[in-house]
Amino acid sequence: MSTFPKFLLANKRNIPESPAIREKKLGIWHTLTWGQLADEVRIVAAALLLEGVQRGDRVALLGENRPRLFSAMAAVQWIGGVVVPLFTDTNAQEITSPIQSANIAFVFAENQEQVDKLLSLMPQCPTLRRVFYDDELGMRHYRQSQLLSYEALMAKGRSGLAEVSAKLDSELERGSGKDPAALFFTSGTTGPSLGVMHTHEALVERVQSAIKSEGISGNDTSLAYLPPAWLAQHVFAYAIPMVSGSCVCCPESSETMLNDMREMGPTIFLAPPRVLEALLTQVSVRINNTGGIKRSIYDSCMAVAKRVGAGILSGEPVSAADRLTYQFGDAIIYGPLRDVLGLSRVRKAYCAGESIGSELLLFYRSLGIDLKQVYGSTEMGLFATLQAKDPGISSSLGRPAPGLELKLSSEGEVLFRAPGQFAGYYQDAESTRLRTDAEGWFHTGDMGWLDQQGELHLVGRKQDIGSLNNGGDFAPKLLENKLKFSIYINEVVVIGKGRDAVCALVDIDSEAVGNWADKQGLSFTGFSDLVALDDVYRLVGEVITGTNAELANDPNLAHTQVHRFVLLPKRLGPDDGEVTRMRKVRREVIAQRFASLTQALYDGSSVGHIDAQLRYEDGSSGQVSATVMIGQAKVFATPTLQKAA
To answer: By the 8 A CB rule, do 53 and 101 touch?
Structure first.
């Protein structure tokens, strides 16, 4: 079984009545078994052959996680095509480039919104000739010849199945693990987005390794709620279920996700740090709105959990008294809290996308949730390294997965090599050459170090790391993770490389800060009013001061205390290019857009001014102009400066 469609047919033979995909629609859960899924995929594959899709063609997918999206992926791969998932929240201008660069002729679109984007860019994308759409709501008056509904595509496949049946069988048999399976575009955090080609073999090998090491089986259930264009979501929602025979569940919408997750009870859960931070914020806001004895019980139990919870989860020795106290807390606080978060049945939880702060990791592990960091990249696949079985709260990302080699360059850059690593950047041999050396080592751009057990620890992106003018090392990600553990900070960008001191640009969490402001009786009408309040500046200043006090006790980090900060008058958003679609910070864009505020932070000004161009979801532009205060944080006396190891 070398390709995903071959795994699909194996699941049909072995577990035909087991659930493959569950979807909540209009409040009701619908189940598609492996037998039903395989039958539908065969019909769609037949229709695609009749539509003219050929081996090697790139077929784009533009929609949220839905059963028909997974059927389309398998059908494309059945006949030797390559799936190209795209981010659904992009505007037409953003998806023009990947469609042009990948020479895409066919697209599966979810609904009218996505169809409208594709129709608007067709003059710039002459290769695009057919759009298949799923949801027919609002589409009855569309008459463009390029459009075909999914239902009509299925009807075409049923009527023509006998005609192409022999070719379907031969294309499936012809499929090889060496064939390209999917083309993913990188997030573009540090530069232009690049198309990364993965073969069936590379993805299957990485997934089989994870299934074996993590004990994933057909009895597991995962959740498909993140963008399908993200490699990690593709692995968890498509690749792992195909290989293991497990079930994937699709929530009805992002608004109902938490309630739907409680109903489906996933046993495997994937989240980037931003999702884990958002869940923590929701819990904290609710707790902050309680008082009296309830709040006291919560605080007492969480203190116990923080002290011994992670140790109990990791199997470390814990006194009988602490274990009994923790069991009491589990009955009245931790268990109900896991249920509220929809994680009561989770056996394995994974954080991927970027590094997670130790405080956030400790919070979830203290609740009894087996959360681990997964390290990988679009190029190397998701499971390049995986934390050990009982990681505790170590910063270690574990050893490389079986079949992968790991080493550090002379500068400390993390390098990987594997027989089945990515097949190169699509139609970009120069970028492939720059990132993969003559010996086959892929240069990740991440700086790290290896401990005595050979486990990887990350420091940050190579281009972000430097030193302050006083000689102290500066790695912004560690400091930013500490600050973002506060529920009042949504995102923060710290500045210090080549500077005399560290300063910060802060994007507040409007929900948590707004809730706090309401309780204080403060008056505001919107985000811009909220960030301009003196009391909000004091609130964020106290958060930064608390972090500074913690840093002051660490000789290796004391010099990174934040001296001054500014509350940004707008949210950092992907439509403005300040963060990626996966909400990773684009530091170069932010440095340019907020250069005037950075200048004010370092020239001693009490206020700063910003004039910035905005881009809205429909592609139109606007302008933000504001004068903002400069906040001062308390800085503590530090031990003798020592450079980090």
So the answer is: no
| pLDDT tens digits along 591-618 | 999 999 999 999 999 999 988 776 655 5
339: how many CB neighbours lie within 10 A of its CB? 13
- State pLDDT tens for residues 286-332: 888 887 888 899 999 999 999 999 999 988 899 999 999 999 999 99
Angle between helices 476-484 and 358-366 (to 10 degrees): 40
pLDDT digits (tens, 9 = 90+) for 520-566: 999 999 998 999 999 999 999 999 999 999 999 998 899 999 999 99
Secondary element (H or E) of residue 132: strand 130-133
In this structure, the number of other CB atoms found within 10 A of the CB of residue 406 comes to 22
Q: Kindly write down the DSSP assignment for every residue of 145-180, as one continuous string.
A: TTEEEHHHHHHHHHHHHHHHHHHHHHHHHH--TTSE
% of the chain with per-residue pLDDT over 70:
96
Residue 271 bridge partners (DSSP)? 351
For residue 399, report the phi and psi dihedrals to the nearest 5 degrees: -90, 165
Give the chain's domains with CATH numbers.
4-14+28-205 (3.40.50.12780), 271-369 (no CATH), 388-459 (2.30.38.10), 466-632 (3.30.300.30)
pTM: 0.91
Q: Among residues 113, 21, 142, which one has the least CA distance to residue 74?
A: 21
Residues 6+ apart with CB under 8 A from 494: 476, 479, 480, 483, 502, 503, 504, 505, 560, 562
531 close to 630: Cβ distance less than 8 angstroms: no
The DSSP 8-state label assigned to residue 345 in this structure reads: T
